[in-house]
Design a protein that fits this description.
With 168 residues, the chain is of the alpha+beta class. The protein is built from 2 helices and 10 strands; from the N terminus they run αββββββββββα. The N and C termini lie far apart (65 Å).
């Protein structure tokens, strides 16, 4: 086989692979079109601010099922702000995603999710409910700050919300 023929085969394989990836992403976007991240301004008194990387959002308890949720579809730097009213996710070029305390289901630590494996408990997992009722797991990897402190702040927020007699 000549170099030109080998190059052509390689280019054809690459084009097919990229086409299949694009098709899969469009299909996932169509499947997840009803799931929306809640957009809004940060409210409440700031309890803590943490910097890191937004990793992914998946279906609850299905860390390999990435969701194509608008404003949470791609990896990015993130600033997580916990307030007395909820949790704000600020990513460059995106509006603020504000998870009101009533949307928060759970918080904890994780070691892996789609496309990412880290040291034991290296990710913070935040479970929340979208407007359509879908429960989503959002994963963040902190670069600045203690992940245990972030988990504790969100858990305290959830506890405060529950003690006020509020229900989902």
């Amino acid at each position: 086989m000549t170099h030109e023929a080998a190059s052509l085969v390689f280019v054809l394989i690459a084009v097919v692979a990229l086409s299949l990836m694009a098709w899969g992403w469009r299909r996932r976007a169509k499947r997840d079109a009803g799931i929306a991240a809640p957009i809004g301004e940060r409210r409440g008194d700031v309890r803590g601010t943490y910097s890191g990387l937004y990793v992914a959002t998946t279906r609850h308890d299905a860390p390999l099922d990435r969701l194509n949720v608008r404003h949470l579809a791609f990896r990015s730097r993130v600033t997580v702000t916990v307030t007395s009213a909820g949790v704000a996710l600020d990513m460059p070029g995106e509006p603020t995603v504000f998870l009101d305390a009533s949307r928060l289901w759970a918080v904890g630590r994780a070691t892996w999710t789609i496309d990412r494996v880290v040291e034991s408990d290296g990710l913070v997992l935040l479970a929340w409910a979208a407007g359509d009722g879908t429960v989503c797991d959002t994963y963040v990897r902190l670069q600045d700050g203690d992940p245990n402190a972030l988990v504790a702040e969100i858990d305290r927020l959830r506890t405060d919300f529950t003690q006020m007699g509020a229900t989902r």
